[in-house]
Design goal:
The protein is 37% helix and 12% strand. It is of the alpha/beta class.
């Protein structure tokens, strides 16, 4: 009996100690909660704010380092006074993300993207030549999936509560809180480790844009695609002899239906479904291609796009995903050696030349140069 009684007392003592330990832990947690509520900046407890986060999102802390370029991804740069096109803005954004990777920092992304009105025509979406979307900015999250980007490079938006707290805390700390990285060495031992492929941002499209693209691809089935860039690239200007010249002498010719036909027919057999993405605004411009292919445009999928698309940037991002999923895809200009293209004109050309509209002109010029 005595032995049983001794054993019983020992168990009770062990259980009591565990109960006391749990009580102390609970009290400590309560004190921490009260402390975090009282230690606040801008109406939000710092400890409490950075500790609460959904499991699907990366948690940011006050000890993280951040890279802030400003509220425009295309500025600083040559387009500070105006708004560059999406391609230029994506190049700048990709550069900023690479910089953040190189410095091992969280990138503070602008919450808005400016939209150049030149690139915001509705075009073949509804067959209108004059109509445009009356917007000059759109939310960055309406274009890109910030959480998906953060799986590769940590990203927050500059209108987020996270950045507000970090910025206000940094201002209080003054020089100890904010540091400029302009003097950091850019020497990279393995540069490929901090380079993002051109396909990175296109694949980071916002969820609803990716969803729209998948629906269109499902309806298209087995298909091919061409991207025909005309409108903004067909600029001409007259030289001092009053002769009209352009930076892309063959582009107008090479992107007309009859020349497109001759360019793609070896790689794309007749009868195939051909998706055409273009900034050409003339209704029916590509109709001659219907003699050989089943031609489709974004306007054929208005039931999918109309509830989703609010500007031409979003439309282009959906079309880009659709074209990337094609069996055979022709770009307008060559970016990589393996690209199939509609023209051989270089994408970047500083020289202004006389436009060439026929194959005979090319042959004549070839004779005169030899």
């Amino acid at each position: 009996m005595a032995t049983m009684s001794k054993t019983h007392r020992s168990k009770t003592t062990h259980g009591s100690k565990r109960l006391v330990l749990l009580s102390l832990l609970a009290a400590a947690a309560l004190l921490l909660l009260l402390f975090s509520s009282s230690f606040s900046t801008g109406g939000s407890g710092l400890v409490d704010y950075f500790s609460r986060s959904s499991r699907t999102k990366r948690q940011h802390t006050l000890s993280d380092k951040y890279l802030y370029w400003g509220d425009r991804v295309d500025c600083p740069g040559k387009n500070c006074e105006s708004c560059a096109g999406l391609g230029h803005q994506e190049s700048s954004l990709r550069c900023a993300l690479e910089e953040a990777m190189f410095l091992n920092r969280t990138f503070v992304m602008p919450s808005r993207m400016c939209i150049n009105p030149i690139h915001n025509k509705k075009g073949v979406l509804n067959g209108s030549d004059n109509e445009s979307w009356e917007v000059s900015f759109c939310a960055m999250e309406s274009l890109y999936d910030v959480d998906l980007i953060s799986e590769k490079i940590p990203v927050i938006l500059d209108d987020s509560e996270t950045w507000h707290i970090v910025l206000s805390t940094g201002m209080k700390l003054k020089e100890r809180g904010i540091a400029h990285v302009s003097g950091a060495s850019r020497h990279r031992i393995d540069r490929s480790n901090v380079m993002l492929p051109y396909s990175f941002l296109p694949s980071m499209a916002a969820p609803r844009l990716r969803n729209a693209a998948e629906k269109i691809k499902a309806q298209l089935g087995d298909y091919d695609a061409i991207h025909v860039r005309r409108g903004d690239k067909l600029k001409t200007r007259k030289d001092r002899f009053n002769v009209g010249k352009t930076q892309f002498p063959h582009l107008d010719r090479d992107t007309r239906p009859e020349f497109i036909m001759s360019r793609i027919q070896k790689q794309i057999p007749p009868g195939r479904t051909l998706y055409i993405g273009s900034n050409e605004r003339t209704p029916g411009f590509f109709s001659p291609l219907s003699a050989r292919y089943k031609v489709v445009y974004s306007s054929n999928f208005s039931e999918i796009l109309d509830p989703v698309i609010e500007n031409n940037y979003q439309l282009f991002m959906v079309e880009r995903l659709v074209m990337m999923g094609a069996k055979t895809f022709f770009k307008t200009f060559r970016e990589f050696e393996t690209d199939l293209t509609l023209t051989d004109d270089p994408k970047k050309n500083k020289n202004w030349e006389i436009p060439v509209y026929t194959m005979d002109q090319d042959k004549e010029e070839l004779k005169t140069t030899h």
